[in-house]
Write a structure and sequence with these properties.
This protein has helices at residues 30-41, 65-73, 77-82, 105-108, 119-131, 190-195, 217-221, 255-258, 264-273, 324-343, 349-355, 360-377, 381-387, and strands at 4-5, 17-20, 23-26, 46-50, 62-63, 86-88, 90-95, 98-104, 114-116, 136-140, 144-149, 165-170, 174-177, 180-183, 198-203, 206-214, 223-227, 233-238, 243-251, 290-291, 295-300, 303-304, 307-309, 315-316. The chain is elongated and about 65 Å long. 30% of the residues lie in helices and 28% in strands. The longest helix is centred in the last third of the chain and has 20 residues, at 324-343. By secondary structure, it is α/β, with parallel strands linked by helices. The strands form 5 sheets. The chain has a 7-stranded mixed sheet with strand order 8-7-17-18-19-16-20. The chain has a 6-stranded mixed sheet with strand order 10-4-3-14-23-22. The chain contains 13 helices and 24 strands. The chain starts with a strand and ends in a 10-residue tail after the last helix.
């Protein structure tokens, strides 16, 4: 994979095909696919480039009210419900086996509920809707192998409005010219290196693993998140009428012993503090646990010229907030508006991104800080109650 280059640095092969697209998006996750849908419905031509052959199987399962509203505006809620989305209204929080609080979405939101749907089902619904538009293409199994900068960039003195990527070179031999390019969380590519992101990454001191269980009556009843004074936590919730997720977090130094071949210690500890989910614990000893990496990430800048970043390339927050996917869709909605305004004769995209899109950093920082606070306070119930903010947890009143 090559770095960003100008035409002079890497001439096009005679076999390279030429075509035109208004927007090229790198990455077909929830942010990239939702952005493609919004742009496509505005009439812009869009190509989404995704190296994987299929939509990713793993990702966030939760849609909070702000994300639900965006999908509802696009008429996608009936499709999500037909794919088995579960409508839930309460999450119960426990500490050392005792109920700490019940968070009611009926009490704290105008919408009154949140949705759970496997990540692949959500993204598939968005992709299929976008694919029905004649001006939107999803190029799965294809990568971005090179990029050409604007001619004004060659001197190294171009101003912001004349800086950017003018075309991308794909692994299938195509050259796509573009008025806008978006790095939406796909694998590292010349698009990402062009923006030259500076990232602050914070890893937490707990190891988190995920297992899939069969739904039991307690799991079907409500979501239950358990905390323990010694730094353990466990979250039981359904993803369908038959399957459920169990996330377990333990202090990092205990992970090898807890998640090893013999899970007696894990089951014993869960029995001590996961008191409302006893009917599910019989499955834990034989369950297959896989790592669930957890970290906080902050990035600068959010764009360079006509190249913007979206999703996990911008920020990542602790999953205790449950808001990462909904915030990404909000970012995509704003980004779509800016790209459309510029394409319809408004100010240059670089100026719009500088004035409006970079402001999202304040919103992201607040959520990341909130996730940090949750991640260090949960062993202490009084401190966790003090840190807990209903609005940041998905409420809107």
């Amino acid at each position: 994979m090559t770095a960003v280059h100008t035409s002079a640095e890497q001439p096009l092969s005679p076999r390279t095909q030429r075509s035109h697209n208004g927007v090229v998006i790198a990455g077909a996750g929830v942010g990239g696919s939702f952005l493609a849908l919004l742009l496509g419905r505005s009439g812009l031509r869009v190509t989404v480039v995704e190296p994987a052959a299929h939509i990713a199987a793993h990702g966030a399962d939760f849609l909070k009210p702000r994300g639900i509203r965006l999908l509802s505006d696009q008429g996608l809620l009936p499709e999500l419900m037909s794919r088995g989305a579960l409508r839930r209204d309460t999450i119960s929080y426990y500490h050392d086996g005792e109920v700490l609080r019940d968070f009611s979405y009926q009490e704290h939101t105008d919408l009154g509920y949140f949705l759970i749907l496997p990540y692949r089902e959500l993204v598939t619904a968005i992709v299929e809707s976008a694919r029905r538009l004649p001006n939107v293409e999803f190029a799965f199994g294809t990568s971005i192998d090179g990029a050409e900068s604007h001619p004004a960039d060659k001197t190294g003195t171009a101003d912001e409005e004349h800086t950017g990527i003018s075309a991308v070179l794909l692994s299938d031999g195509r050259r796509l010219t573009a008025d806008a390019v978006v790095d939406a969380g796909g694998p590292p590519s010349p698009v990402r290196s062009f923006v030259d992101p500076r990232q602050q990454i914070h890893e937490y001191d707990h190891d988190v693993r995920m297992a899939t269980l069969a739904v039991t009556p307690s799991i079907a009843e409500r979501n239950r998140l358990y905390f323990e004074s010694d730094g353990w936590f466990a979250y039981f919730y359904p993803v369908s009428t038959e399957q459920a997720r169990l996330f377990v977090g333990v202090p990092r130094h205990e992970a090898a012993a807890v998640f090893g071949e013999h899970r007696g210690k894990l089951v014993e500890r869960l029995r001590g503090f996961a008191t409302g989910s006893a009917d599910a614990l019989g499955q834990v000893e034989t369950a297959r646990f896989v790592p669930a990496p957890v970290m906080a990430l902050r990035s600068t800048p959010y764009h360079r010229g006509n190249v913007a970043r979206l999703g996990s390339t911008l920020f990542s927050c602790h999953p205790m907030t449950g808001q990462g996917m909904s915030y990404t869709m909000e970012d995509a909605s704003l980004l779509a508006d800016l790209i459309i305004r510029s394409a319809e004769g408004g100010p240059p995209l670089a100026k719009l991104l500088s004035h409006d899109y970079e402001l999202r950093r304040t919103v992201h920082d607040r959520l990341v800080d909130y996730g940090d606070d949750l991640a260090v306070s949960y062993p202490d119930p009084a401190r966790y109650q003090q840190v807990f903010q209903p609005v940041l947890h998905g409420g809107d009143r």
